[in-house]
Amino acid sequence: MLKNMKKTTKSNLITYGMVIAAFIIVQILTATGNISSLLEGLMVPLCIYSILAVSLNLVVGFLGELSLGHAGFMCVGAFTSAFFSKCVQDTITVAPLRFFLALLVGAAAAAVFGIIIGIPVLRLKGDYLAIVTLAFGEIIKNLVNVVWIGRDSNGFHFSMKDVMSLNMETDGQVIVNGPQGITGTPQDATFLAGILLVLVTLFIVTNLVHSRDGRAIMAIRDNRIAAESVGINVTKYKLMAFTISAALAGLAGVLYAHNLSTLTATTNNFGYNQSIMILVFVVLGGIGNIRGSVIAAVVLTLLPELLRGLSDYRMLIYAIVLIVMMLFNWAPKSIEWREKHLAFLKKKKNSPSAASAGADGRKEAR
Questions:
Q1: Domain annotation covers residue 311
Q2: Which of 69, 154, 237, 303 has the largest count of CB atoms under 10 Å?
Q3: Annotated region Disordered: where (predicted)?
């Protein structure tokens, strides 16, 4: 048990170290002027997609349920936090404090929607669960596009018709402008804030997975009937994983909203395409592999931009990389090759010295 704990801790520290090392390298490249403005602008989106991939892996990889509405929770976190920041922009002038409160608001709102959606939806399985979560994501996106909210001296005004229906005074301000979204959100998101949120997400998910609750969640994934037979509350643990995943997606949404000057709900950023792209990160990085989710999110986000100079072959190379990653992670021959070339690690664990040490330990125990 102690050896397993040490192995788990070591693996987690390696993952944290990779993120911190990437941050330091980017800071050095930025300070020396060796990074383009295009790549510098991609640093916060890389953090956003890493958070989304890790949080979705909690549901898909460890709970074993297929969710296609992850972009919907991101949308909830983005718009609630942007609305909050826009309302308190003149009251709370300290940017870090305002952004921290926006993170709490966005995560809480996404978690509430996770609970509301999770209670009825998690009774479904397989394709039915995927269809309902997909419908949730599309409903949220379309609902945001038909909402107008304004504020004047008389308070807040709400409409689902048009901006003229708000009937505001001359001193009024439109905060949510239907399909045009929210304009003028404070751009408080930074690369440092993104890295810290990635580390928080990794810490939450890794500690949950290796806890008693995490083992219960994985037991449900492996065999629901067997898990129920030993007294595991299936509904409780499924809802726990789903809600935590939704809250973390809400954090990514907050980071996304505060990285843009104008926030709109379109198919590309909060629709079906976004949910599928996050699922691609999870699948290609390895289902149940947290570190792989981060690597896949970074590689597949950077690759199209790095290949932009090869305009004629950019998407072809991107598709080839996707196929190669999938074959490397899932093909039986690839798995066999990895096991063969990593056999020296197993031999080291099963070496005579390790066996003799184990025998000595058993003698002392006797």
A1: no
A2: 69
A3: 347-366
Specify the CATH number for the domain of residue 134: 1.10.3470
* 284 strand-pairing partners: none
Of the candidate ranges 37-51, 63-77, 321-335, 336-350, the one whose mean pLDDT is the lowest? 336-350
**pLDDT tens column, 288-342:** 889 889 998 998 888 877 777 666 666 677 677 777 777 776 677 777 777 776 6
CA quadruple 258, 260, 263, 267: dihedral sign: negative
Decide if 348 is inside a domain: no
What are the tokens at 77?
């976190």
Answer for the pair 73, 253: CB distance below 8 angstroms, yes or no: yes
Is 223 inside a domain boundary? Answer: yes
Q: Tell which wins on pLDDT, 183 or 6.
A: 183
The H or E element containing residue 175 is strand 173-177
Could you tell me whether strands 155-159 and 148-152 are parallel, antiparallel, or unpaired per DSSP bridges? antiparallel
Rounded to an integer, what distance in angstroms lies between the CA atom of residue 194 and that of residue 196?
A: 5
Longest dimension (CA), the chain: 86
- What pTM was computed for the model? 0.85
Helix (H) or strand (E) holding 337: helix 332-341
The total number of residues shown for the chain amounts to 366
The owner of tokens 């404090």 is 97
Q: How many domains does the chain have?
A: 1
The identity of residue 28, as a single letter, is I
Q: Say how far apart CA 147 and CA 159 lie, in whole Å.
A: 6
